[in-house]
Amino acid sequence: MRSRGAKSVDVEALIERIESRFGDKPVRLRLRTGLLIALGYTGFLFWFVLLGAIGGLLFFAGVTLDFDGVVAFVAIGAVLLTVGILQAVQFIWVPLESGKSQVLTPDKFGLLEK
Question: Per-residue pLDDT tens for 10-39?
């Protein structure tokens, strides 16, 4: 299934909605954007903590308890801890290019449409 992508009419309507709502309140727009970013980071943090907690509890239960299923507990706990650590490292290791930003001026806007 092919994604339809954003049409220029949709983008222009979105820009008009944002400008009408936050045009004279740039601080409010920055605050709202910052809160949405914080919410996204909180979601990632929740996932990593959840994986670590479940994996750590299973691993700890497998090491300390004495019954027939302890090997499975240790294995599942170790896998969950490893996956959580690898995902956290992958999330942190996103390369950021600094110094590549440009200010969009009206004369450069035509370059975006090509």
Answer: 788 888 888 888 888 888 888 998 999 999
From CA 3, how far away is CA 50, in angstroms rounded?
Answer: 32
> Which H, E and C letters describe 46-96, residue by residue?
HHHHHHHHHHHHHHHHHHHCCCCCHHHHHHHHHHHHHHHHHHHHHHHCCCC
Query: What CA dihedral angle connects 105, 109, 110 and 114, to 10 degrees?
Result: 140
Domain boundaries, given as residue ranges, for the chain: 10-92
**For the segment 54-99, what is each residue's pLDDT rounded down to a tens digit?**
999 999 988 888 888 888 989 999 999 999 889 888 888 877 676 6
Contact 93, 111 (CB under 8 A): no
Please state, in angstroms and as integers, the Cα–Cα distance from residue 6 to each residue in 11, 18, 71, following that order. 7, 16, 51
